Amino acid sequence: MQKKNDQISTLLKLNDELENYFRNTIIPQLFVDAHLILRKFTPPAMKQFRLVSSDVGRPIADIKENFRFPSILENIQNVMESGDILDKEIQTTDMRWYQMNVIPYLVKEENKTNGVIITFVEITSRINDLREQEKLIAEHEVLLDTIAHDIKTPLTSLGLTIEMLKGIPEKGMERFPVLLEKVENSLINMQHIINDLTDSRWKTHRYQAEEELLDFENIIEDTRLTLAPQIEESKAIIKIDIGVSEIVFVRRKLRSVIYNLVSNAIKYRSPERRPEVSISTVEQEGFMVITIADNGSGIAEKDYSSIFTKYRRLTKSADGTGVGLYLVREMVNSSDGKITVESKVGKGSVFKVYLKLQK
Q1: Do 191 and 305 fall within a single domain?
Q2: 77: Cα separation from own chain's centroid
Q3: End of a domain among 78, 103, 122?
Q4: What predicted TM-score, i.e. pTM, was given to this entire model?
């Protein structure tokens, strides 16, 4: 009799200790028995999952919607069957993230699992921080690619101009000042790119380009000047039809988008005809739609998505790194815009860029 009383006393003491633990812990925790009945929960769990005292003794299946995590029953069942601890990051239907630990409650004397203890630690802020870090890494990657790509732009122009200088006969020196000006412009462009990078590094430790009110015609003129050697060498015809001109955007980004698309239109021209590039803008449902159409070699429909893949090139017939269109898409998408393409092999391509207009 005394032994039985001692056992009862020990059980009551253990139960009091467990009650004190569940009452004082600051972590949401649940105790579910082997029959999937909710036996205890901590006050933070009551607040977090809108539990009430009368939920004790109810099947966990009846209140699973409180936890807003669809597979919680399956997870509990798996832990009780396997005896292994489950540790996973979960997202509930209210879009919050938790570190969930499901630990088997072992009865040593019987050597069996008699339920589980479930712990929830909210990690929404940590997940958001990780996403922000991933975004920053992606931005820096695009930045580095943009810098490398944009520096190649004036270098290419510089190389073409130097080749033209080499081919000038002694009697043709009247073209020398024009070509020399192109060399100077290419060098100035490279200097601006380098200055933008170094200034942003020392001032903010992060490249932050500011939006400003831009005149699209000025962007086109910048592009024409930068591509002057390519336009002259290919004898390309540039047609312009501006329906809407003003937009709030980052100057460097918009200039890079237009340069890449026009440069590609000239680069991938058809050998059978003189290249023609049409640039137009219209306003459509709150967007400036920039259309750049050409009569070049065209793109097969199966390759529409792959042309925007980093380092992916459909042909090696022209110089390039496979970064240009990838950068264009990244810059447009990051501004809540989009880019589309329609093309026919041997006929040409039409790229449309949708950029939000700010009222």
Answers
A1: yes
A2: 37
A3: 122
A4: 0.47
